[in-house]
Structures are given as C-alpha cells and as structure tokens.
Amino acid sequence: MSKQRITVIRGDGIGPDIIDSALQVLAKVGCDFEYDFADAGLVALENHGELLPQTTLDLISQNRIALKGPLTTPVGEGFTSINVSLRKKFQLYANLRPVISFKGTKARYQDIDIVTVRENTEGMYCGLGQIVSEDGSEAQALSKITRVGAERIVVYAYELARRDGRKKVTVVHKANILKSTSGLFLKVAREVALRYPDIESTEMIVDNACMQLVMNPHQFDVIVTTNLFGDILSDLCAGLVGGLGMAPGANIGEDCAIFEAVHGSAPDIAGKNLANPTSVILAAVQMLEYLKMGTEAEKIKQALKQVIETGDRTTRDLGGVHGTSDFTQALLERL
C-alpha cells in the first residue's frame, strides 16, 4: 500500500518553526507520511516571483491534502488573499474552526468545546462587484448566497454534529436586516434542520450571538454561518480559550482539504524560537481525524493537554518562559 502523501506549506514568519514542530509530533505518534514541500506567501514571492506558484497548486491538486503554516499577503492593491484564492481554486467550501479549553491557559473560561462551521466560498468574501468610484468617494461590493452553497454547508454542520455525538446546531444569521442573502441562508437552514430531528436546532442573530458567546458560551455546541460572520465569530471563540495560538482551522471540499494555523505569521518573533506551535499541531490533529486516524489524533490531544495543564516547558503566551523547541520536546516525551 502506498504511503499517504501530504503537501506541506511551511509559510512565512514563524511558519517554518511551528510546522517543523507539528511534523516531529506526527512522526513521534507513528504517522508514516510522505511530504512534498511547497512555497506560498512572501517566501514564494522571493523564490518564484509570485505568491501562489503553479507548482504549489499542482502539488495540492496531486495529493489532495495539505498542511500549512501562516502566510503573509502583502497589503495593498493587486494582492488578493492567498487563503481566499486557495479556497476558491479547490472549492474548499467548509471552514472548520474547533475551540477546546485546555486547563493551564490564561483563558477566561473552562470546559469550552465549540465548533464553528463557516461557509467558505460565498457571501461578502466572494469578491463580486468590488467598485471604488474614480474620485474615491464611494465604494461597493456584492454578497452572493446560493441555495446550493447554503444547503451544502448546513448539511455539513449537521452531519458533523451527528458523527461526533454533538447535540445542538445554532444557525447564526442577520435575516432581520439582510432579508435577501441572510434570509435565503436561514430559509435553507430551517429546511435542512427538519431532516435532523435527533439534533437540537436553534437560530440566533449574529450580534446577539456575539454577546451570548461572551456571557454564556457553554450554551453553544456547533455554530453554522456564512463567510463574513464565521470569520468574526470563530476568532471570538478562539478568544474564549486563550487566543488564536490555540485555534486550528480546516478547509474542506469534496475531495481536497487544507489544514492550517489560523493566526498570522508574527514576523516580529520569526526565527527566535518563541512561537507556540499548538494551533498548527491541532490542525495536524484535524488532518488525522479527516484521514480517519482517530487513535493518533487522540494521543496528540492528550499529550498537549498534559503539557499545557502542568505548565511543563510552555511558551510565554501560555504563562511559561520556554520556546518552541522546548515545548515540542515536552510533547514528544509524553508521546
């Protein structure tokens, strides 16, 4: 049987450090993968003259699965987000952002376990109709929601809930004001909910959802929503468990998936052995779950839990004084 091949994009800034940490952890837990390394972001711009080289796209197409570090998209006109480009190119319609509390972090809450399922290809981020008037006094953009796109993401959320033994799905929307786009999303979500009588269904307007997440986050289990709201809510959820350093992300399509750290490339601490690799290690855990390697995924989660809970060689953002390599070593010893 041939080995699973995975495209690895080390990324910019702290990316190479934390990806290296994740690969050590995967090796330690017995994952015998073959890796194809590819460039994207600023490092690709330097090496190939473009942010997202064709060779990288070809490797993702070939292996259908990728693990990536944070990428930097230069600010300014002419540069579209590399992440958005990847999601469009490979039709990665579902963005999965789980957050789990680890004892030992400086988070404000305990026992949080929420998954945000965000539609990844439509809505305000689809880039349609972006116009700025010649005198710069007016700007416009279009949001597009399709019945197919809405149904696909809501079904994904309910199937995930059913598969993982979760009890409740909350549809987050703004249909009271955005009657066309958000209205269609909510209408389709209500239709889909009827097919899953075994799962509790609730709906919440996005501004209220933000308040409720801060006041009583334990009422949430699975959140499903559109692109823009999902981007904002998933970062809010990360804040409940200690920040983006604790939050992984998966972008999943029909036959392709990209797993990533969701935080930025933190150029100020790049190469200084200071970064917390937890986000990308948890992204690797998501990758293992996608590959139906639940045993290995669980081992890594438990080892992470122990390291963070005991404060053994943790990084500064977790209240420790150690760096990436010490933290990784503590994990490897437990594995």
Please tell me about this protein's structure.
The chain has 2 domains: 1-112 and 243-335, 3-Layer(aba) Sandwich (Isopropylmalate Dehydrogenase), CATH 3.40.718; 119-240, Rossmann fold (3-Layer(aba) Sandwich). It contains 11 helices and 12 strands. The strands form 2 sheets. It has a 10-stranded mixed β-sheet, with helices on both faces. It has a two-stranded antiparallel sheet with strand order 6-7. The radius of gyration is 20 Å and the shape is globular. A hairpin with a 6-residue loop joins strand 6 and strand 7. It has 335 residues and is α/β, with parallel strands linked by helices.
Q: Which stretches are poorly predicted, pLDDT < 50 over at least 5 residues? A: none
**Subunit arrangement of the protein:** single chain
Helix and strand element order: EHEHHEHEEEEHEHEHEHEEHHH
The number of distinct helices, counting runs of at least 4 residues, comes to 11
Write the CATH fold name of the largest domain: Isopropylmalate Dehydrogenase
Strand order, main sheet: write it out. Answer: 2-1-3-12-11-4-5-10-8-9
Helix content: 40-55%
Radius of gyration, Cα only, in angstroms?
20 Å
CATH class of the largest domain: Alpha Beta
Tell me what the CATH architecture of the largest domain is: 3-Layer(aba) Sandwich
Largest sheet: 10 strands, mixed
**Structure summary, number of beta strands:** 12
Domain module count: 2
> Mean pLDDT across all residues, rounded?
95
User: Which structural class do the helices and strands define?
Assistant: alpha/beta
CATH homology group of the largest domain = Isopropylmalate Dehydrogenase
* Strand content range: 15-25%
Distance between the termini: 26 Å
What general form does the structure show? Answer: globular
Family: Belongs to the isocitrate and isopropylmalate dehydrogenases family.
GO molecular function: isocitrate dehydrogenase (NAD+) activity; magnesium ion binding; NAD binding
Organism: Paraglaciecola hydrolytica
Keywords: Oxidoreductase
